[in-house]
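Support request from a user on the community tier.

User writes: "When I paste my structure tokens into the form, the page sometimes reloads and wipes my input. The last time it worked, I copied everything first. Here is what I submitted, just in case something in the input itself triggers the reload:"
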């Protein structure tokens, strides 16, 4: 059996699958980056497992994370979302998703792609960390601090440094697989 990061519960297949196939894989697709950004905001204060279990439904009710469609959501759609038990029904987070879609579209227009904008915070390549145990892994970094500050200035919300760092981990801007994890070397 292959060694995984210690945070992955081996008896939870959805978590194992996420770790083995997605977490830390460098993402350059704008739609996928937007999905991670929105899901990380919804995850604030909750477990990532909760989000993983609801992700397919999030995709369905949030128009497969089409930022153009989400940016146009009005009161009726917000009301619909807040009544949907298949997502996290938090008014501030739903509002942030709409606000972030608008800011995302502006960043795309300014930089040519959100990918170009967001990867600029790490110089266009994955930061290679060398953690031996999960307790060494930080919850934020100077890069996530800078990202958070800049995103807030551009109108994004629910983008504190900790959320930005989780986003960076998920989207492969940092390699935070521990060195004994079978996925570590794939990104090294």
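"...and here is what came back when it finally went through:"
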């Amino acid at each position: 059996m292959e060694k995984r990061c210690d945070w992955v519960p081996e008896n939870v297949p959805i978590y194992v699958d996420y770790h083995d196939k997605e977490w830390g894989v460098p993402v350059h697709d704008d739609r996928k980056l937007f999905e991670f950004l929105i899901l990380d905001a919804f995850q604030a204060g909750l477990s990532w497992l909760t989000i993983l279990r609801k992700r397919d439904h999030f995709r369905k009710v949030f128009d497969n994370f089409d930022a153009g469609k989400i940016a146009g959501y009005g009161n009726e759609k917000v009301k619909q979302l807040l009544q949907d038990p298949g997502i996290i029904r938090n008014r501030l987070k739903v509002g942030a998703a709409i606000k972030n879609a608008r800011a995302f579209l502006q960043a795309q227009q300014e930089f040519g792609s959100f990918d170009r904008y967001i990867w600029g915070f790490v110089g266009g390549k994955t930061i290679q960390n060398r953690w031996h145990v999960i307790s060494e892994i930080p919850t934020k970094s100077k890069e996530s601090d800078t990202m958070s500050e800049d995103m807030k200035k551009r109108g994004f919300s629910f983008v504190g440094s900790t959320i930005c760092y989780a986003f960076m981990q998920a989207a492969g801007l940092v390699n935070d697989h521990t060195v004994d994890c079978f996925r570590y070397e794939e990104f090294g």
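Agent notes: The reload is a front-end session timeout and is unrelated to the input. The chain has one domain: 13-187. The first strand starts at residue 127 and ends at 128. Escalated to web team.
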